[in-house]
Amino acid sequence: LIPIEEIEVGDYVYTQRGVGVVKELYVMPKQELIEIELENGLRNVCTKGQMFKVLTPELEFVWKKAEELKK
Are 33 and 18 in contact (CB under 8 A)? Predict the structure, then answer.
């Protein structure tokens, strides 16, 4: 593993769909960070728009922004 800042075009990375090649790099503008605490006590610091895959009561996976998650 290497820090994300060291990834370069042409590097191979793991994605949800398997291994892929980095085709382009870009820098995100600075954004406010929030802390999310999961039911198991784990914490994650992320942007409000960070997407999380959530299991619904109907046992379906949906994507939700961090700011949409319940406290």
Answer: no
